[in-house]
Amino acid sequence: MRFPWPRRVFSQVLLMQLAIATGVTALATGLFLAPLSDQFDDQAMRRALAIAQTTAARPGLAEELRGPAGSGGPSPAGPVQAEAERVRKSTGAEYVVVMDRDGVRWSHTSPGEIGRHVSTDPSEALAGHEVMQIDDGTLGRSARGKVPLRSPGGEIVGAVSVGIAYESVRDRLVSAVPGLLAYAGGALAVGALAAYAVSRRLQRRTHDLAFSDISALLAEREAMLHGIREGVVALDARGRIRLMNDEAQRLLGLGPEATGRPLDEVLAPGRTTDVLAGRVTGDDLLTVSGHRVLVANRTPTDDGGAVATLRDRTELERLGRELDGTRGLIDALRAQDHEHANRMHTLLGLLELGLYEEAVEFVTEVVGVHRATAEQVTERVRDPLLAALLVGKATVAAERGVSLRLSADTGLPDRVVDPRGLVTVVGNLVDNALDAASGTPDASVEITLRAEGRTAVLRVADSGPGIPPERRELVFTEGWSTKELPAHGRRGLGLALVRRLAERQGGSARVGEGPGGGAEFTVVLPEALTADLAAPGEARGATVEEAIAREADVEEAAAGEAR
Fold first, then answer.
1. DSSP state of 260
2. Which of 61-70, 90-99, 300-309, 387-396 shows the lowest per-residue confidence on average (mean pLDDT)?
3. Which of 152, 172, 192 is at the close of a domain?
4. What is the pLDDT of residue 448?
């Protein structure tokens, strides 16, 4: 009858461990018993040899064998037989046989055997050699020891043969087996208990699943991890990466070789590393990795590790910023429409009153203000995208009651390498400055854009409340903001993206106190401009270090004037 193999891991492991423990116990018992029989045989032969040696060394035995008492030949009543029987009884030997040089017995356990030749070959002992063996004789199988019997002069006159029944050796071996089996059974019981404890622990760890179920779950997990479009990073208790799916590798810019290495070793210091390591806690934490905006969540595991998930919100954040910009543009257009209606009503009233010269003067003034603003921007900022951005921001600022102006030393040629990146930097800084300055007395925002060789230096100062020194680094952290949440539910990325864009180009972004007491943001972008081909003989602009030093000098001078 064939018994079915159990499916559960607990049962399989328990049976395998019991089989292993039983096999090891049986093997150890066999390996112990095999030499034990040989040891008992050796001990019996050595004992027989020792008795024979002691008997042969007895004073007078050789003389009795060949002296006057022995002249009548071997006899059951002779002194040799008496002495041999005395030794046999005192030592517990099976027999003690004393023989002459002809191999004739002078003593034996059975008196009828006295005077007969021994049943085994005595030549070795009579030749002067000591012999140990297990052999068959007239009394059956026995452990034997044979020694030569020498006269006081050293002459061999016979031999002494002592035998110990082999059955007594076997009895000792058999008597030792129960104790040995008891020890083996105890070891087997301890092994069975240990196997049960290990199997129970394994059962809890595997949730009592079968090996086939575990294998299927592993295959499904691999397919799921590499198939989902969300990054998954598993960390152990020591902060090393245990696994990382394809999406996480793409979002973090890592390869498969990062698995098994500490998180702080494969990722640069920053908010992303802090969020994944658990040093920053919370739900749906925003972070920036490279040019990507990520939403991270971290869940601890029972073994002290954690599993972090990453979602790519780059496109969503871009659409959200575009939505905010569109909404601001709509508000500006609505305000412009209202202002335009008021101006048209004013112009209509002047015309109805016949005040034609005043009407012409009013139209000229209104058109001149807008034309002057546009001309001022395009004269100093030659890049079309950036100029259009500033003109639009000036309109929005006017509707919000903020004076947006360019500083006197603003001058940026049409040699921008990445206009869209510079538009992102300027747009984010101006938006933050307008938010900070709105509602303050004499609200104003001043923008400085200038070129120093191939380096672009941007400074945006506002008349807002400013930023305390202890928070000036915090404002560049992803997710930090003092504003209300917009429609898409996220803020705190604009300044982080500004610093990320600047650092990617080898530049810097910092904030300090402006001349009017508000905040002043300074961004240095090396290699932001192409070479000036129109003036090849002109010296190259300042290096990044010189630009930063010059900005520091300007800030110190501004701070001195403020004091």
1. T
2. 61-70
3. 172
4. 92
User: Which residue's entry shows tokens 């199988």?
Assistant: 141
- Looking at the fold, whether 109 and 24 belong to one and the same domain comes out as yes
pLDDT in tens, 275-289: 888 888 888 777 777
Q: Which of 271, 234, 231, 233 is nearest to 251 (CA)?
A: 231
The CATH number for 65's domain is: 3.30.450.20
Amino acid at 93: A
Q: Which two tokens stand for residue 399?
A: 């509707």
Single pTM value for the model = 0.42
- Give the β-pairing of 508-513 and 519-525: antiparallel
Note the helical H segments in 381-464. Answer: 384-399, 419-437
- Asked if residue 190 belongs to a domain, the reply is no
Claim to verify: residue 411 and residue 486 sit in the same structural domain: yes
Residue type for position 544: V
The token pair at 279 is: 């040093």
Helix (H, G, I), strand (E, B) or coil at 458: strand
DSSP state of 254: -
Distance, in Å, from the CA atom of 202 to the CA atom of 113, rounded to the nearest integer, reads 73
**Domains held by the chain: number:** 3
How confident is the model over 164-199, as pLDDT tens digits? 876 655 566 667 667 767 777 777 787 778 777 777
Count CB-CB contacts under 10 A for residue 66: 16
Residue type, 198: V
